[in-house]
Specification:
two-stranded antiparallel sheet; 480 residues; CBS-domain; mainly alpha; MgtE N-terminal fold; 3-stranded mixed β-sheet; 67% helix; Tetracycline Repressor, domain 2
Length: 480
């Protein structure tokens, strides 16, 4: 994005959203009042009021950064969102479409005519077009490709040839290349002739006449070294680089590890074909984190908070159905011990504690394991060590907190045997939660699924059923 900062940094996003909502509400209120009034010049007055209110609202939008407008659009119900979208200047449509979430972008594109989409897309770079191409109408994409020059068309096709999670789908084609056999003074003169540098340019890419990457020259080195020196003397010969078919999330981790702002992308022959930039990596990490949270809760995809009821139902029903089945199984476990519960009513009051603590402990373990998997810290060689460690943590927590609740059970019901059963059940259920907290995400990964997918739902099902069975089973054996 070329807009660098918001015009009023002292205002929070919530302040800007509140101002836009207030202007929108005022506009509708005045419109409603004007519409009710009668008079010889009613239509003229109504038209003037309408234009005045919309001008004020549009002026406010013009002062906002594209990312701020995207935030506002995501926070508004569909009717208000489309009203604001109509007021955004056409030359900003492309930037905002790239900033909003996928779910909100779908609603905006549905409200646009083909020629409007085409005009917005023409302002985008090849990598940005590739990001949006899958969401655009096919005839619009075809028409858009016809308007591009041969180089741009080839770049878009290249980006589209890679999977969404690969480096090639995220690489940027706008970069500055130089030769190694020229002086720094020549490089500086060359840069001064350019109208502007591509965004996030912290280094120049040194290539030979065949386009093979030889190294990188950081802007810092360029500025502080003797202008008479050759590029070859100053450049870094071993830069961090990526291949287009590498996993994009691995690249994002490398950006974090090495504090990169940009990095070259080379093909198998070492030829420079693009670059990755920090803005794409930050977006990727954010999207990955959001996806992980959604998957843990059993949501199939990102959801527009103001989506229709039916669309939200379709997104949420699958894991709710799974949860219903597992809850029924847990109820049947309780049903096996109806006689025991009738004889000792205290069991009914205490068994939710065992299940609840087990579920919480299991979710803690799963969160740690999924995070470790995302950072590539888990391998087949350390699985057994992880299981032993988590079982050790669970054993200590079970004995400590199980002992505490055992004492409480003894104090409440004046039964030391009930307290011992409570401690044992808590410890065993925490051990079960720890074991399944490691095995569930690792099994999902082994079968090619997202380790976080529905993990929270599954661990809760295991600890509920297991907790009830363990507690009621021990109670039946030793108390009745």
């Amino acid at each position: 994005m070329t807009e660098v900062e918001a015009k009023k940094p002292q205002e929070s996003l919530q302040d800007r959203l509140a101002q836009v909502v207030e202007l929108l509400q005022r506009h509708r209120l005045v419109e409603d009042l004007t519409h009710r009034q009668e008079g010889p010049h009613h239509d003229r007055v109504e038209g003037l009021v309408h234009r005045q209110n919309l001008t004020e609202l549009q002026r406010k939008l013009d002062d906002l950064h594209s990312a701020d407008i995207a935030y506002i659009l995501e926070a508004l119900p569909l009717e208000d969102r489309l009203a604001i979208w109509q007021l955004v200047k056409a030359d900003r449509d492309g930037d905002i479409l790239l900033e909003v979430s996928d779910a909100v972008r779908e609603t905006l594109l549905a409200d646009m005519e083909d020629h409007e989409i085409l005009a917005a897309a023409k302002e985008m770079d090849a990598d940005e077009l590739a990001d949006l191409a899958s969401e655009l109408p096919r005839d619009v994409v075809h028409e858009l490709m016809e308007t591009l020059d041969a180089q741009q068309r080839e770049r878009v096709r290249s980006a589209l040839s890679y999977e969404e999670e690969q480096v090639g789908a995220l690489m940027d084609f706008e970069m500055v290349t130089i030769r190694e056999d020229v002086s720094l003074e020549v490089v500086l003169r060359y840069l001064r002739r350019l109208k502007e540098l591509p965004g996030h340019t912290d280094k120049l890419f040194v290539v030979d006449y065949d386009g093979v990457l030889k190294g990188v020259l950081s802007i810092k080195r360029l500025l502080v070294n003797d202008p008479e020196k050759q590029v070859a003397e100053v450049m870094a010969n071993d830069p961090v680089s990526f291949h287009p078919d590498e996993d994009a999330y691995d690249a994002a981790q490398a950006f974090e590890r090495y504090d990169l702002i940009s990095a070259p992308v080379v093909d198998k022959n070492g030829k420079l074909i693009g670059r990755l930039t920090i803005d794409e990596m930050v977006d990727l990490i954010r999207e990955e984190s959001e996806s992980e949270v959604l998957n843990m809760a059993g949501l199939r995809e990102e959801e527009d908070i103001f989506a229709s009821v039916w669309k939200s139902v379709r997104n949420r029903w699958a894991w709710l159905a799974v949860n219903l089945i597992t809850a029924f199984m847990a109820s049947r476990v309780i049903g096996l011990f109806e006689g025991s519960i009738e004889k000792l009513v205290a069991l009914a009051a205490l068994m939710p504690i065992v299940a609840g603590i087990g579920g919480n402990s299991g979710n803690q373990t799963i969160t740690m394991i999924v995070r470790a998997m995302a950072l590539d810290q888990v391998s087949t060689g350390n699985t057994s060590r992880l299981i032993r460690k988590e079982l050790g943590v669970a054993l200590i927590n079970g004995l400590v907190w199980g002992g505490v609740i055992g004492v409480v059970a003894y104090w409440l019901y004046d039964s030391w045997s009930l307290g011992v059963v409570m401690t044992a059940a808590m410890t065993l259920n925490l051990l079960l939660a720890a074991l399944m907290g490691v095995l569930i995400p690792m099994t999902l990964m082994r079968i090619g699924r997202d380790p976080a997918m529905g993990a929270s739902v599954m661990i809760t099902a295991v600890t509920d059923s297991g907790g009830f069975f363990i507690f009621l089973g021990l109670a039946s054996l030793f108390l009745l």
